[in-house]
Amino acid sequence: MDLGLGGRAAIVGGASKGIGRAIALGLAREGCRVALAARGRQALDEAARAIAEETGVQVLAVPCDMARYDDIRRLVAEAVAAFGRLDIVVANAGGPPAGLFEELGEEAWQRAIDQNLLSAVRLVREALPHLKRSGSGRIVAITSAAVKQPRDYLVLSNTARLGVVGLAKTLSRELAAYNITVNTVCPGNIATERLMFLLEERARRTGRTLEQVVSEEESRIPLGYLGEAEDVANLVLFLCSDKARYITGTTIQVDGGSTVSVF
Ligand code: NAD
What we know:
This protein has one domain: NAD(P)-binding Rossmann-like Domain (Rossmann fold), CATH 3.40.50.720. Helix 4 packs parallel to helix 5 and helix 6 (193-206) packs across helix 7. The protein is α/β, with parallel strands linked by helices. It has helices spanning 18-29, 41-55, 69-83, 106-134, 155-174, 193-206, 210-219, 229-240; strands at residues 9-12, 33-38, 59-63, 88-91, 138-142, 181-187, 251-254. 48% of the residues lie in helices and 13% in strands. The protein has a 7-stranded parallel sheet, with helices on both faces. It binds nicotinamide-adenine-dinucleotide (NAD). Nicotinamide-adenine-dinucleotide binds at residues 13-20, 37-40, 64-67, 92-95, 115, 142, 144, 187, 189-190, 192-195.
């Protein structure tokens, strides 16, 4: 299927590893120019080089902490300067730390709100004039299946990400007049560094092995296995394409069927 993304330009947050990197690679494979954002220069440069080598498209690496507004301003400015346009933004960053409410102080809350809620607000604010000019702008926010079914021990994620869903739904209505679509994608258990870190933490906390915790997790997934970053990326690519022109305001999980709620 030709997704019609050739020649377009995108920004992907949290793109040196995991889901963000798979999205950036997928977009580039479709001929879309991509600006990758992440904090650490080394992993970011390595990801950008690998994607450019494989796809031959223009790839930009912009060191950026998605929790910092100044960095997001610079990210958008550098992407637009390099590509001359901006059609797609994927709001993504690392997840907040795990923990019970009583274990997490003001600083952790502020960081989670900056990184996982205000990052989306700020990215959209800075990108909006360019997305309006695109004529078929696309905004995709990566959150978590926790927005449909909160996860124990992840109060920061459960809370900050619901704000993103409210933002995206509202924007889908406000920005429809500019032919900009806005959707939220919710990963379930996707075998990236983030998930393995959380599962290792749970194994330590409960005195079990990582293998035991992984197989416990898999037993809760109707399809019976952990997803791959590419499983999430495939949905994002489709949502960014012309084929998805009539899909906006949705909140879709990619979770092997593990979310029990109907919607
Ligand atoms: P990951 O840790 O494997 O990769 C995160 C990427 O974001 C890395 O490139 C990292 O360098 C970058 N990053 C982290 N903090 C950043 C910041 N402040 N600014 C810029 N870049 C930053 O994570 P992942 O598994 O790919 O997850 C992506 C998002 O999806 C996270 O928010 C995560 O919490 C969420 N999520 C993941 C899963 C899963 O199973 N993997 C499930 C639910 C939700």
